[in-house]
Structure formats: C-alpha cells, structure tokens
C-alpha cells in the first residue's frame, strides 16, 4: 500500500529507525514538524544520541504494541523482512506503509530540481561535493547523502533552494519494493560515474546491474541531463539510449569536460579543466587520486548546467572538507600517519591506494583490508584484490567477516590472496582485527609510515586504538 498524503500524514513511524538513512529521514521529518517515532533492535551511539538530541522517541526491540495508536504512515527500512512482528502488524492492519526512498521523494524531492549522483564508485563523495559547491555559492540546496559531510557535520539538509541532491543507490528499496532506490528520485540531472559488478547479495550478474542503470537513464526527462563518466565503457554504451541531454566528463580526449596537467601537494590536487578544446580554468581540491579528479569534473559539469560560475565552482571545490571515512585522516603519532577509508571493492581499494601514493610518493604505505560486504567476499574478485593491494608496500588482511553469508564455492580465499601477494614481493599477513593486529603493527611500524585501513565496517575500532597504542 503506497498511497498517502504528506499533508495529512502527521504521525510517522519508522521501523529500523537507527539505520543511517532512516535516522537522517527521521531528523528531516522532525524538522518539518511531523510527530516522528520508531523502533530498532540495536540502538547505540551515535544514532541513539542523534535521536535523543532531537527528542525523537524510539523503542528498543520490535513489538506490534508499538503501533498503538496507529500512525498515519509507516516507513519500513530495507533491512526489514517478513516475520518481523511490526511488519506483520502493518500488513494485517492495512496501515499506510512506504520505503525510505519513496518517503524521501514525496516529502522532500517532489517539486525540487532533482540531482541524482549514481554509479558503483564515487557517488558519496561526488554528491557531497555537489551539495557543498551549491551551498558555498549560496544556493541553499537540500540533500540526502549516505555519509557524514564534514562541511555540514551531517548527511542531510532540508534547504530552501530549488535544488535537491541525492546519492542514487542502486541497492533495493524494501522487501516489498525490490527496485533500486534511485528509481524513486524523479531525476532532472543524473551524474553517472561508472558501472561495475557489485551488491552480489541482490544482483546475480553485471547484466542485471546494467539493466538497473538503463532504467535510471530512461526516466531522465528529455529536458534533463545525463552527466556521463566517459572513461567507463559501460557508461558509454548505456548513454546511447538516453533521451535526455548528454554531457560527458573524464580524462578521455573525446570527453566534453576534461582535466589535464595534474599536480599534487601535501594538502591538495591541482588540475586544469577544458570544455571541448577551450581552457576553462585552474582548479584545486583537497582530494587525491585520478578518481577524485573525475569526481570534481562531474561536479564542474553539473554545476555549469545548474548555472554556477567557474569561480563559484572553484571556491566550493577548494574548501571541500570531504566525507567522513573517505580517506579520512585519523591522526599522526611518532611520524606515523593513520587513515581510514570505506573502500570495499577492488577498484575502490586500488583507487584509494593510488590516491594515497600520489600524496605520499616516498613513504612506506601499509594497506589493511577487511573483506566485509557481500560482494567483497566473492571469489570472483581474488585476482583483482591482488592487483589492487600489490600497489601498497605492506598488506594486512583480516579473516572473512561472517563467511557463512557466502556459499563456500563462491567464497574468496584470503590464504590465496596472501600467497599471491607474497609472490609479488609484497609482504602480506592475515591477522584478526584485535590486540594481535595492534601488537603486530606496534612492533613493525616505523617513523614515516602511512597506514591505511579499508572496510565498510568500523574495523573494530582498530584505527583509533592504533594511535593510542603507538603513542605509548
């Protein structure tokens, strides 16, 4: 049941309220004056603190009694499934229920100029860049992004301006809506960075992923824009079917927006930008690696469509503070620098290491990686991990997180990766993310080393603990 009126849905209940996106949605609804409450099984900081600060009540655990009196609308998180007592009560009582992306569309996107940033890699950073460039230029955008933007200290904003920026996730919406989230976002402008196989828990093949992106391209209106990453062959192929205006970006010679003459300093990357054959100007951003230059190009192209001047875009890029856990600097102790990153796909692992190498070309780089997501634990990526991780000087891998979630015949072998990396003369170890890893690092790290942690989880707090351990 997905028919409701936002004007009359005053009491909104969120099942799984402590998910990152659900908590943000709760905050946005509260800001509009709705009576918001919810429930979740695991309630702990920072999400619980965030809800407490906004005076949003929540139940710990799921119980159908929580739905008395009945809310006007129930938003069901995509981690929820049949068998959950509150989900069952919603269905039995025929309460109005929607998915998170459906609610986001009806409460916040409809009526705005919708900018959707999509692709396998880079969508969080690119959408954050676009939101900040608009904010810096005084456009007061709304946004909903799956990360904490350091410039805003949160991942969402209502905004009074005409533009709304969404991170367009291809993951499914809810147990009753298996379509990708980005189908809901009424796109006027889509940035499509790249397309690879990912989300192996819901997509069976690259063809299925391509189909999802084809459908996204197909709902951009004819007066809308597709900002296409021209270095990606799949994006090129899918762009042929676009009905909208197409603008391309990348390092390829035939891209509309191109970057040339890169240089890297300790705090920023500098590059020239060309539109067609004309030099637009010189830009800089406190980001590192070719993939980040491409993210900047996407924002420059989108910003030009949105009417921003070259100077406005340049000012936004230069003052961007990044997204938490995107090559985030955690600290420096005894001339040892520690970074934390969300990378959980071989392509992202490689790009992150290359970005760090461009910033610290003469330092010894340690890459510590935890295969945690459904895709990262797939055997199909074994060789790709070897190619990516051998760019580091030393590698530490953790055992698989919850290996039983992947069928044995499809499961990656950490031993195979360790052996292959050692054969490339890249010293590699497998260690659990606990005191054993901390003791090993304390013994083997040297002054000048750069330590990079990569996981889509919190790496069991090891990045923060390491700074304390090596201090003593």
Q: Can you give a write-up of this model?
A:
- The protein is of the alpha/beta class and 472 residues long.
- Helix content is 32%, strand content 25%.
- It is built from 14 helices and 23 strands.
- A ten-stranded mixed β-sheet has the order 8-7-9-6-12-13-14-15-16-17, sandwiched between helices. The chain has a six-stranded mixed β-sheet with strand order 18-19-23-20-21-22, sandwiched between helices.
- The termini are far apart.
- The mean pLDDT is 92.
In short:
This protein has helices at 20-31, 47-53, 85-93, 100-109, 123-136, 206-218, 233-239, 290-305, 310-318, 346-359, 382-389, 414-423, 435-444, 462-471, and strands at 11-15, 35-40, 58-60, 73-76, 97-99, 113-118, 142-149, 154-157, 163-167, 172-174, 177-180, 189-192, 225-229, 245-250, 257-264, 269-275, 278-285, 328-333, 336-341, 365-369, 394-397, 428-430, 450-454. It is α/β, with parallel strands linked by helices and 472 residues long.
Distance between the termini: 58 Å
Instruction: Please identify the top-level CATH class of the largest domain.
Output: Alpha Beta
The name of the CATH topology of the largest domain is UDP-N-acetylmuramoyl-L-alanine:D-glutamate ligase
Q: Based on the coordinates given, report the CATH architecture of the largest domain.
A: 3-Layer(aba) Sandwich
Tally of alpha and pi helices: 14
Q: What is Rg?
A: 23 Å
Q: Number of folding domains?
A: 3
**Helix coverage percent:** 25-40%
- Based on CA inertia axes, which overall geometry fits? globular
Average pLDDT confidence is 92
* Binned strand content: 25-35%
> Which class of secondary structure composition applies to the elements?
alpha/beta
Report the count of strand segments. 23
CATH superfamily of the largest domain: Mur-like, catalytic domain
């Amino acid at each position: 049941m997905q028919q409701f009126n936002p004007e009359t849905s005053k009491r909104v209940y969120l099942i799984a309220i402590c998910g990152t996106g659900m908590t943000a949605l709760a905050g946005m609804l509260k800001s509009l004056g709705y009576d918001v409450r919810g429930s979740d099984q695991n309630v702990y900081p920072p999400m619980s603190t965030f809800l407490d600060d906004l005076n949003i009540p929540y139940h710990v655990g799921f119980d159908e009694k929580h739905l008395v009196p009945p809310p006007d609308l129930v938003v069901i998180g995509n981690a929820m499934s049949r068998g959950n007592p509150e989900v069952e009560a919603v269905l039995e009582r025929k309460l109005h229920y929607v998915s998170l992306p459906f609610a986001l569309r009806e409460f916040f996107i409809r009526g705005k100029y919708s900018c959707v940033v999509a692709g396998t890699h880079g969508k969080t950073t690119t959408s954050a860049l676009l939101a900040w460039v608009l904010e810096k230029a005084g456009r007061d955008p709304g946004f909903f992004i799956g990360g904490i933007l350091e410039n805003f200290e949160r991942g969402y904003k209502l905004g009074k301006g005409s533009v709304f920026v969404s991170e367009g996730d291809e993951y499914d919406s809810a147990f009753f809506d298996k379509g990708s989230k980005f189908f809901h976002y009424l796109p006027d402008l889509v940035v499509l960075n790249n397309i690879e196989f990912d989300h192996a828990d819901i997509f069976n093949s690259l063809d299925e992923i391509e189909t999802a992106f084809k459908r996204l391209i197909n709902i951009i209106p004819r007066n809308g824009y597709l900002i296409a990453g021209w270095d990606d062959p799949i994006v090129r192929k899918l762009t042929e079917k676009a009905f909208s205006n197409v603008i391309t970006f990348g390092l390829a010679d035939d891209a509309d927006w191109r970057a040339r003459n890169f240089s890297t300093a300790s705090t920023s990357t500098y590059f020239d930008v060309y539109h067609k054959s004309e030099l637009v100007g010189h830009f800089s951003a406190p980001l590192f690696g070719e993939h980040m230059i491409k993210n900047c190009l996407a924002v420059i192209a989108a910003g030009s469509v949105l009417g921003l001047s070259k100077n406005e875009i340049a000012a936004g890029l230069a003052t961007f503070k990044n997204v938490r856990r995107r090559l985030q600097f955690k600290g420096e102790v005894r001339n040892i620098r520690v970074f934390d990153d969300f990378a959980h796909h071989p392509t992202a692992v490689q790009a992150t290491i290359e970005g760090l190498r461009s910033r610290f070309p003469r330092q010894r780089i340690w890459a510590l990686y935890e295969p945690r997501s459904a895709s990262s634990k797939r055997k199909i990526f074994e060789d790709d991990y070897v190619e990516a991780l051998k760019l580091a000087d030393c590698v530490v891998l953790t055992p698989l997180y919850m290996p039983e979630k992947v069928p044995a015949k499809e499961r990656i072998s950490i031993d195979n990766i360790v052996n292959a990396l050692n054969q490339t003369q890249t010293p590699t170890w497998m260690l659990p993310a606990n005191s054993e890893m901390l003791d090993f690092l304390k013994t083997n790290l040297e002054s000048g080393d750069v330590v990079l942690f990569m996981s889509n989880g919190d790496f069991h707090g090891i990045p923060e603990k390491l700074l304390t351990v090596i201090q003593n």
